[in-house]
Design brief:
Number of strands: 35
Low-confidence stretches: 1-24, 539-545
Strand order of the largest sheet: 12-13-11-10-16-21-20
Mean pLDDT: 85
Oligomer: single chain
Helix content: 25-40%
Largest sheet: 7 strands, mixed
Number of helices: 11
Keywords: Membrane, Signal, Transmembrane, Transmembrane helix
Strand content: 35-45%
């Protein structure tokens, strides 16, 4: 029996292994030929080849054609069948390196980092091409439909570069380093000082070995002085191992900073420097801006044509705080370098780099309070209070300005209590209107919905509210841990039957007494879902029963008035006539016809 069980287990394992082996995605290669001239005008042709045996019928081939038809407009493509393969040939054409970069960004969804240098100077003569991606990265669009299972993955295949008709060797991630003549430089150091208001100092230092100094002689001084035109100071320092050349520029703008960097780096408008607000990182009490720079040092080389050491320093002399610097690599920003007191330092080797240095400030905030006020008939007021310290006037003012930028029509007020300055934003309307506002203010994860249920002439209707809150983005970094509380005010418009909070780390039912919430509760990290059920008066039910009541009362009053008027006219007592009428109703032995005639007789006497 044990042998049979063992055999069954072995067979089952084999079947499972076969199943998973059969489900493995095939690997399809992308072959690339990059053809350019010295002005970087040319084409990138990429061939994606599938085995025809993997697509034996028309249906499977039609599905493959449909996938290729999603090709972005930055490229064109064609198809051919050759050597038992189905080949799709994609062509990316461009007229300049800038045009090339823009089309790559359109395909990848982010700006790639690349270097192209065709240089002829006293330091370096040759060609350098570098990209931080391979061709497989240009086909993410092919696999982005979640409902489709393509059954294959892409990887880089054969890659070649043709420059001015000459084939150059390169790995899959294009790297060309063709050195014809070289006088090496050990290190280039760049130091930047920011004073705020768009004013900068920049100092360049070139560490030149003794062999290069001797080889170039007077040409070295002439070349470096020409590259330093307009410098506030130029300095040569001699050491046994070589010379250090330093050029300093003071009080320059961003535009001028680009110009002098291009001049010293011997590049043709390749330096890209910007300083702009980081809107995706700003909140109502945090401000962020980023200094971004793309450096191209491909016109210089180290020993044996190798990479050069790059030292970069950025000092902030404004009132802004510096945050962790970043370097752009392989399609994404990653932490790089170190932050000291008001200073960022980075070191690397290569032909250049793309960096980001973020600065800004965080205003202290003590608490955020969310209040939902019921107005009845499916209408509500959302009120959000941001509580700042008593000395946080600038923070409260900044929050107000940022909120107004979102929507100038918001009701924003500045309040003050014993301990805090309060920036309050409030808005009223239907659930749909509230939902639109919270999405606009705090992002797409926020929503507010209302449902009611009542039939016919019911006096009350059941109501249900779902309030999705995603404000956690506001409470990161310095603001992590700031309490966010939630309160419901029914104001007699609704009677709650249940109130439930679903948080990131806990769920809880909130206590209700006499149809009202008696406590505020805290949201985990500013996020969560609030669900409550209750009842509220149903407008048309109330109108119906009120109308009936009015009609009944009016009828009774009219009847009594009529009886009293007739009784007075006939000299009789209204009470007596009514009593007689009541007594007549109790007489036994009368037929309905006789009773009717008796009542009519009594009424005729009134």
């Amino acid at each position: 029996m044990k042998k049979i069980g063992a055999c069954l287990l072995l067979i089952g394992s084999f079947l499972v292994l076969s199943l998973f082996t059969g489900c493995q995605a095939r690997t399809v290669t992308v072959d690339t030929v990059l053809t350019v001239d010295s002005s970087w005008s040319g084409s990138r042709v990429m061939t994606v080849a599938f085995s025809a045996a993997d697509y034996p019928d028309e249906q499977s081939r039609a599905a493959l054609d449909g996938m290729m038809a999603r090709c972005p407009s930055a490229m064109t493509y064609g198809k051919q069948e050759k050597d038992s393969q189905i080949q799709y040939i994609f062509t990316l054409e461009f007229t300049s390196h800038e045009d090339y970069q823009k089309k790559l960004e359109a395909l990848m969804g982010s700006a790639p980092y690349g270097v192209f240098s065709h240089t002829d100077s006293i330091f370096f003569k040759g060609t350098r091409i570098y990209e931080d991606f391979d061709s497989a990265a240009l086909f993410a669009w092919m696999l982005e439909e979640p409902e489709e299972k393509p059954g294959f993955s892409l990887q880089c295949g054969k890659t070649s570069v043709v420059l001015d008709g000459k084939a150059l060797p390169t790995p899959g991630r294009i790297t060309v380093n063709q050195v014809e003549e070289l006088q090496p430089v050990d290190e280039i150091s760049i130091s930047t000082v920011s004073y705020g208001r768009g004013v900068y100092d920049r100092t360049f230092s070139f560490y030149i070995p003794k062999s290069t100094v001797l080889a170039l002689g007077n040409d070295l001084v002439t070349y470096m002085n020409a590259r330093s035109e307009g410098a506030d100071s130029v300095d040569w320092q001699e050491f046994p191992s070589g010379n250090i050349y330093t050029a300093a520029f003071h009080g320059v703008s961003l535009e001028r900073l680009e110009e002098i960097t291009d001049l010293l780096m011997n590049t043709d408008a390749c330096s890209q420097i910007s300083y702009a607000a980081q809107q995706d990182a700003e909140t109502y009490f945090s401000k962020r801006a980023a200094f971004e720079e793309t450096l191209d040092l491909s016109a210089y080389g180290g020993e044996d044509g190798g990479e050069i050491k790059i030292s970069y320093e950025y000092e902030n002399k404004s009132s802004l705080e510096l945050f962790t610097p970043q370097r752009y690599q392989e399609g994404q920003w990653e932490s790089f370098g170190a932050v000291g007191e008001n200073t960022v330092r980075m070191e690397t080797t290569g032909t250049g780099m793309k960096i980001r240095i973020t600065d800004g400030w965080d205003y202290p905030v003590d608490e955020a309070r969310i209040t939902l006020i019921c107005l009845g008939n499916g209408n509500y007021t959302r009120q959000i209070d941001f509580l700042f310290p008593k000395d946080g006037k600038e923070g409260a003012k900044y929050a107000q300005e940022m909120l107004k930028k979102k929507d100038a029509g918001l009701e924003i007020t500045q309040l003050e209590d014993e301990e805090h300055l309060v920036c309050r934003v409030s808005f009223s309307g239907t659930a749909e209107e509230i939902s639109e506002k919270v999405k606009m203010l705090f992002g797409p994860g926020n929503s507010f919905s209302y449902q009611s249920q009542g039939q016919g002439v019911d006096l009350n209707q059941e109501v249900s509210i779902i309030d999705n809150i995603q404000m956690g983005r506001l409470f990161q970094g310095e603001h992590q841990g700031v309490p966010v509380t939630y309160t419901v005010q029914t104001n007699g418009k609704e009677s709650l039957t249940s109130l439930h909070y679903e948080g990131e780390s806990r769920n809880r039912d909130i206590k209700i007494v006499n149809g009202s919430v008696i406590e505020s509760f805290q949201l985990d990290g500013g996020n969560g879902r609030v669900v409550y059920n209750g009842t509220e008066p149903r407008f048309w039910g109330v109108v119906f029963y009120f109308t009936i009541a009015v009609l009944v009362v009016a009828g009774v009053v009219t009847l009594i008035a009529f009886l009293r008027r007739r009784a007075i006219r006939e000299g009789k007592s209204t009470k007596g006539v009514l009593s007689q009428l009541a007594e007549k109703k109790e007489l036994p032995g009368e037929t309905p016809e006789e009773a009717r005639e008796s009542v009519e007789d009594i009424l005729s006497k009134l």
